[in-house]
Amino acid sequence: MLYSVSMIIGSLGLFLFGMRTMSDGIQKVAGDRLHAILNFMTGNRVMAILTGFAITAIVQSSSATTVMVVSFVNAGLLSLTQSIGVIMGANIGTTVTGWIVAILGFKVKMGNIALPLIGIGFILMLVKRFNKKDLGETLIGFGLLFMGLDYLKNSVPDISAHPEILQFVTQFTGHGFFSYLLFVLLGTVLTIIVQSSSAAMAITLTMAYAGWIDYPTAAAIVLGENIGTTVTAYLASIGTSVNAKRASRAHTLFNVFGVVWMSIVFTPFLNLVNYLVPGDVYASTSALLLPAHLAMFHTLFNITNTLISSFFVPQIAFLVKKWVPDDKNIIPESYSLKYISATLQDTPELYLITVKRELSKMADIVSDMFNGFWEIFRHPDKKMGSEVEENKRMEDLTDRMQEEITRFLSQCSMDNMNRVSANNVYSMMRITNELESIGDSCFNLIILCERKYKQQIIFNDNATEKLTPYIELVIRFISFIKSHLNEHMDSENMAVAVKIESDINKMRNILKQSASKRLQSGADVRSELLYIDMVRHVEQIGDHCMNITERLEKIL
């Protein structure tokens, strides 16, 4: 008995490892394209659903898709209604796994082709000249996945030799709605434990094929797996924006709603599936019928649930907005960015989306700080104790963000990444440091304003007038950086950045020369030195912006 259990656990481990390896390889091959599809997706809900289906069918993980969606919503690249459509499509896409397992896993001797696939994949990974390492990883994962499934199928004890197992399960069947709820709960817990609805589906199909559970019981477990997979999106939304939290809650609401209406039509729905799929699963004793029936049940349920729910996307959005109300605009006292592997399918490439959204937040903060400095400077008679304190909190926040994002990127770099992603990690580290330096310069400008106010230093009217276009030029540069952050800086935009930085340097020289002339003509020393100090700090911000554009040019 102990040997059988260890064989099942080992087979499951091989299956999950194969799934992760295959998914990692696919995401490395097509990850950037998948991000682009989501990034440029239209507001058409049909296209959103198709996008979610396509991406999930490709990467074989609805968890990876939903984590990606939550991250894009958090970064403002997807709206809440768009994200709901993608999540619906992801639920349909994840049913592809069930069909692969049902058709190939039990009807084809996958062990006969698993090893050749692993062999081909190994050669592609080993020979650098082919430059197909990621494809090789995908093939190895595919071979390991079906080898694990083959072992799992053979490791499950024959039910005829162990009738006590069936007796244990039958104690909980035949109790109507109670049995339905119990096995839905079992499917939910199973998916949470293995952190993969695809793996949970494979386990369920294997148990059904071995005769451990009957058709209705397996179907109820499959429904539970749909609920269990929402935990991934929930974990991914921890510490994110309000809309990202709403996207994860929409996933939960959508899947729970499906299980609720299915509980009303469960038996007729099972009969419909039995009618559509060849072979009567109730009358036949052949175990081969069950996997196909369950795969069809899973697909038909998710398609029907999506069709029904697609007419109520605005209503779902309204409910989740009530569920997760807007946050007050308060600067957080603490900040953390944890590298948590929410699912077995996650890869560092997907985690880089998280970093992109954090860099966008950081850019917004330093932009607000610089605008805050200029607002304070233009109103010298206004008491600004609260503004200084607020900017100090913002500067502290940028320091914590720099530390946490750098640590996060360092942990990403420890994982197996493709060359492009490794290069992007280094560029993101540099951008993080430059943004933090902008925050420091902004706070130094605030301190200079405070000194000017406390010491009652008055600038020459002509000097103040000349400072305005200089500041506006830097504001333009910061806005330019924000609008092109997290994307490759092409030659045309690079030329724009070089022109802005050149103009800033020219104006700096003019302003410093003007201050020197005023000093020579007997102007107030304290005033002119403070003025030169401000000009210097503003110019440093322009330098940091230019450094960011140079790193963006290297991001691919």
Short description, anyone?
This protein has helices at about 1-40, 45-60, 60-75, 80-95, 95-105, 110-125, 135-155, 165-170, 175-195, 195-210, 215-230, 230-235, 240-265, 265-275, 290-310, 315-325, 350-380, 385-415, 420-455, 460-485, 490-520, 525-555. With about 550 residues, the chain is mainly alpha-helical.
What features would you describe in this structure?
- The chain has 556 residues and is an all-alpha fold.
- The chain has two domains: 308 residues, no CATH class; 207 residues, Methane Monooxygenase Hydroxylase, Chain G, domain 1 (Up-down Bundle), CATH 1.20.58.
- Helix content is 79%, strand content 0%.
- It contains 22 helices and no strands.
- Helix 3 runs parallel beside helix 12, helix 14 packs across helix 15 and helix 20 packs parallel to helix 22.
- The longest helix has 38 residues.
- It is elongated, with a radius of gyration of 29 Å.
- 45% of the residues are buried.
